């Protein structure tokens, strides 16, 4: 490649990375097919919560690095979406609270989510790698790293379609997080993608962007690798989340 891709070609290259999205991980496949037991599903919810509570901190780091006021005024909505606040409209409590309600609907008590007792070392390491990247990177690279959201609506739709059939013991109200994200993710993608297409215009920059998105995809995949070892293969020294609830 000696000349940059056109914006349309570059976008197609970015979207082609969806083949690496964690929706294809064996753990996610088992989830969508209803093959997880209650303890395994709770393990996923409890560990994914660490990612959820880290996202607004990641976005705050990006805002700190960003000198562009117009970008900051739009990007800050992501923090409000997760943390809650007056600008979050229909989800005034925010996505973190919605995830806590998901956990409670699945049988993970609020206090066990908040104190992060079930977070696996591999999950913590992967998520921390992501926030450290955004903290240290140029803000435009931080924006680019968010583009795994291109693929997120598919995962949310699959959960909303499959969970009521496969996991009927989960109160449907607990799935509100996924419903909210269907609209929020599309809005966030439009903004993040537009910024990436605008700022990554040279051959080197475009290849760098693909590398960054692949890194973020690897973070999400690595999280599920840790959960697969802990909850599917029962590799020591990991504990069973169902047993831990009865200690």
Automatic annotation (TrEMBL):
User: What Enzyme Commission number(s) apply to this enzyme?
Assistant: 1.3.3.11
**InterPro entries, sorted:** Haem_Oase-like_multi-hlx, PqqC, PqqC-like, Thiaminase-2/PQQC
Q: Name one GO molecular function term.
A: pyrroloquinoline-quinone synthase activity
Q: Which UniProt keywords apply?
A: Oxidoreductase, PQQ biosynthesis
What reaction(s) does this enzyme catalyze?
6-(2-amino-2-carboxyethyl)-7,8-dioxo-1,2,3,4,7,8-hexahydroquinoline-2,4-dicarboxylate + 3 O2 = pyrroloquinoline quinone + 2 H2O2 + 2 H2O + H(+)
Question: Origin, by domain of life?
Answer: Bacteria
**Residue intervals of the Thiaminase-2/PQQC domain:** 12-225
Q: Does the keyword Signal apply?
A: no
Question: What Pfam family is a match, any one?
Answer: TENA_THI-4
The protein's annotated pathway:
Cofactor biosynthesis; pyrroloquinoline quinone biosynthesis
- Top-level EC class as recorded in UniProt: oxidoreductase
- Quote the HAMAP family the UniProt record gives: PQQ_syn_PqqC (MF_00654)
UniProt function note: Ring cyclization and eight-electron oxidation of 3a-(2-amino-2-carboxyethyl)-4,5-dioxo-4,5,6,7,8,9-hexahydroquinoline-7,9-dicarboxylic-acid to PQQ.
Family (UniProt): Belongs to the PqqC family.
Please give the name of this protein: Pyrroloquinoline-quinone synthase
């Amino acid at each position: 490649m000696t000349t940059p891709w056109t914006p349309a070609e570059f976008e197609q290259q970015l979207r082609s990375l969806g083949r690496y999205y964690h929706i294809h991980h064996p753990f996610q496949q088992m989830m969508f097919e209803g093959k997880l037991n209650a303890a395994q599903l709770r393990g996923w919810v409890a560990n994914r919560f660490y990612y959820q509570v880290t996202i607004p901190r990641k976005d705050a780091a990006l805002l700190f690095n960003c000198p562009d006021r117009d970008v900051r005024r739009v990007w800050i909505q992501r923090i409000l979406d997760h943390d809650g606040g007056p600008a979050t409209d229909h989800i005034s409590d925010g996505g973190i609270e919605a995830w806590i309600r998901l956990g409670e609907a699945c049988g993970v008590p609020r206090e066990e989510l908040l104190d992060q007792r079930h977070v696996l070392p591999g999950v913590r390491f992967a998520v921390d790698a992501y926030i450290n990247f955004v903290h240290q990177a140029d803000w435009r690279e931080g924006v680019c790293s968010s583009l795994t959201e291109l693929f997120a609506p598919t995962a949310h739709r699959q959960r909303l379609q499959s969970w009521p059939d496969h996991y009927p013991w989960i109160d449907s109200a607990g799935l509100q997080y996924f419903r909210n994200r269907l609209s929020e993710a599309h809005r966030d993608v439009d903004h993040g993608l537009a910024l990436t297409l605008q700022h990554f215009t040279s051959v080197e920059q475009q290849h760098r962007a693909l590398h960054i998105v692949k890194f973020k995809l690897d973070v999400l995949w690595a999280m599920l690798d840790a959960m697969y070892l802990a909850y599917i293969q029962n590799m020591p020294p990991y504990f069973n989340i169902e047993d831990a609830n009865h200690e």
